[in-house]
Amino acid sequence: MEKIHSKSNLKVKSTAASTATPRGMRKEERAIEKPKASPPRSCSKENTKPQEFKLHSQERAIKRAMFNYFVATKVYVEEHEKRQLEKLQKMIEEEEVKSLRKKMVPRAQLMPFFDRPFFPQRSNRALTMPKEPSLKSGKCMSCVAENGMFNFHHHQTYY
């Protein structure tokens, strides 16, 4: 075996390979050679056909479009009902205002009677009797905060 490959050596091999077949014969010789009898083959299987598959992306897109349409119609109906309710409330308020305007006729304040001046009358109720405060109770509670705790000190007061 040759381990050294030179350019000229490779060129010779490539030209020889183009005229010779893998078995070492030329194309003309191979055409002349009679084909060998091959044993009879059993019936070959039919080519398998791939089953058609269905992507769920199309179905999902259709379902999503239907859902979006459903949501849009629901929102539209709710907004329409809301507008109708607001119109109804506005009409009711306008009717109330009209009825109040009809009832509430502005009337001027009556003129005072200058020939009979106003004299306030004395009340018939009894006068209130005040109670005196008891300042001599003797005990007074005061709250002093120390360290978050409340201490109550009793002081005696004398008046």
TrEMBL record:
Source organism of this protein record: Linum tenue
Stored InterPro entries: TPX2_C, TPX2_fam
Coiled coil: none
One GO term of the biological process aspect: regulation of mitotic spindle organization
GO function terms (MF aspect): microtubule binding; protein kinase activator activity
Basic residues: bias regions: 1-10
One Pfam family of this chain: TPX2
Chain ranges passing through the membrane: none
Protein name: TPX2 C-terminal domain-containing protein
Record keywords: Cytoplasm, Cytoskeleton, Microtubule
Sequence ranges assigned to domain TPX2 C-terminal in this UniProt record: 53-128
Biased composition (Basic and acidic residues): 25-36, 43-56
Localization (cell): Cytoplasm, Cytoskeleton
Cytoplasm among keywords: yes
Region ranges (Disordered): 1-56
Family in the record: Belongs to the TPX2 family.
GO CC annotations, alphabetized: nuclear microtubule; spindle
Source superkingdom: Eukaryota
Composition bias type Polar residues, residue spans: 11-21
